[in-house]
Design goal:
The chain is α+β, with helices and mostly antiparallel strands. The chain has two helices and eight strands. The protein has one domain: Jelly Rolls (Sandwich).
Length: 145
Amino acid sequence: MKFLLGLAIGLATTTTALSAQVVHPAKIPAAESSGAIFDRKEVIVAGEGAKQTKDVITLMTADKLFESGMYKSGPAHEEWKDKDYGVDEFMLFVSGSVTLTSADGQVTTLGPGDAVTLPAEWRGKWDTEGYTKYYVIRSRGKPLE
């Protein structure tokens, strides 16, 4: 009888431990992808006015090496001349456009419906008047912030 009671307690403890580890898919509903997602309470806002950015992280792994979500930016110019982009990033653009000029001068223009993957080693310029994108980022060792 003690054995059965011990087994039952052990199973209950294991079941409780397993249920604490349950994870769910990170969904962005179609109804939110046109902009309502940026009304979520967890939105990260940086900058002001036209240069404001909004980021909604829908998934960050426990090791902080993988992240996905949606991002919205106003006008911006970024350059990676003396350093690499730093992360592998897949992007699918929802609105606006971005012009990427690689270090060798090759120009890639992206707009709604276009997707691109930038490897961590990419160097070049990023120019935009504003855009919204889905993104997936993988770090190669340094935890994402």
